[in-house]
Amino acid sequence: MSGKLYLVPTPIGNLEDMSFRAIRILKEVDLILAEDTRTSAPLLKHFGIDKKLFSHHQHNEHKSVTEVIRFLKEGKQIALISDAGTPAISDPGFLLVREAIRNDIPLECLPGATAFVPALVNSGLAADRFTFEGFLPVKKGRQTRMKELVNETRTMIFYESPHRLLKTLEELSQYLGAERQASVSRELTKMFEETVRGTLEEIKIHFETHTLKGEIVICVAGK
Fold first, then answer.
1. What CATH number is associated with residue 216?
2. What is the 3-state secondary structure (H, E, C) of the chain?
3. What positions does the domain Tetrapyrrole methylase occupy (predicted)?
4. pLDDT 10s digits, 75-113
5. pTM here?
């Protein structure tokens, strides 16, 4: 009898966002796959979870999948967590989920923390239809992606790092128009959570004179 794969969201900042069910599953499984075991170990310790941790990240994901599938076929119950948020959303997980489905292995994804949902709701932009773009390509394919978004009518959501935020806001202004309404959320669920709303140009000017720290979510109104 095959085991089961659980995809378990973890808090993106505030530990109080960890669900009772997530804690129970992590205590019950045979082993836990973590994006970075050094990051996950304190989280698990905080909730009294004492389980074997195995590394599963973007640099070893292709190699790791084969072994994980073997464990699952042997009947192991396995949970996958990322450093923060829901696995496979701009984090490792897609390859493992795909292989589990191909091998008829049961899987279950728990609902839970992810950064783009509160950022979208906080933005005040239309939330009935939206497209999640994740991280834009850093180099190759970046301009192509921007051009594809010029006529997008849905609200667009991007993840970005602090050191690339100003460049991305500048490029979005060039392709979508400096007067396009947008919002930038950072440090969501943490003590210094902030959401800045306005036009792309106004937001860019704001962050030119303010310290940039933490994970960032950009929401931009559709055409």
1. 3.30.950.10
2. CCCEEEECCECCCCHHHCCHHHHHHHHHCCEEEECCHHHHHHHHHHCCCCCEEEECCCCCHHHHHHHHHHHHHCCCEEEEECCCECCCCCCCCHHHHHHHHHCCCCEEECCCCCCHHHHHHHHCCCCCCEEEEEECCCCCCHHHHHHHHCCCCCEEEEEECHHHHHHHHHHHHHHHCCCCEEEEEECCCCCCCEEEEEEHHHHHHHHHCCCCCCCEEEEECCC
3. 4-203
4. 999 999 999 999 998 888 899 999 999 999 999 999 999
5. 0.91
